[in-house]
């Protein structure tokens, strides 16, 4: 199996728009093997960039005059590992952060929030078919499937943006606390703007971000809190949001 499936698709590609295999005889399984075919299936609909990956469409349909965004970190915020390890051991090694996490998300959907998960990921390079890359995409797709099975409105109201570590001499633009992932969302709900505060179609007063990197003594970082402050929206820890 080739080491880099994504190189067959191009460096910056939306899998839905650019099908890799056109010949009836050139199936993903025959060319890439079972693991490669699984990855291609899981990546259907994802926008694969050099610095971030996302399942968000190029344009968000919205009936409201302004968009309310409920932002969340993923690991340690929406979900925890079942194993108790800091990092997931496989794609099924996850559980909801709290027993009422799903209920809280359903409330947000009913209140017309756009739920966006902004996640820094350090376990895989974006242009690799490593097991960790496949595990991450498969895990998130399963989270989506579970929520959509409960409420079909999640299909149009729940999206993921992840920023893996990138080897570059330039400072990272997408990894929190930088606001590249936030601007990625803005480009899809309105015209691009020069700064997060220029987002006229975003209801910043009602929008918020929940994350576990809050700069507390036991936290590894304050990147989530700093991200929310730079964007100009409210910040909460997962304990305060889900368990209050």
TrEMBL record:
InterPro entries: HAD-like_sf, HAD-SF_hydro_IIIA, HAD_sf, PNK3P, Polynucleotide_phosphatase
Gene Ontology biological process: DNA repair
Matching Pfam families: PNK3P
GO molecular function: ATP-dependent polydeoxyribonucleotide 5'-hydroxyl-kinase activity; double-stranded DNA binding; polynucleotide 3'-phosphatase activity
Top-rank taxon: Eukaryota
UniProt xrefs under NCBIfam families: DNA-3'-Pase, HAD-SF-IIIA
Name the record gives this protein: BA75_01146T0
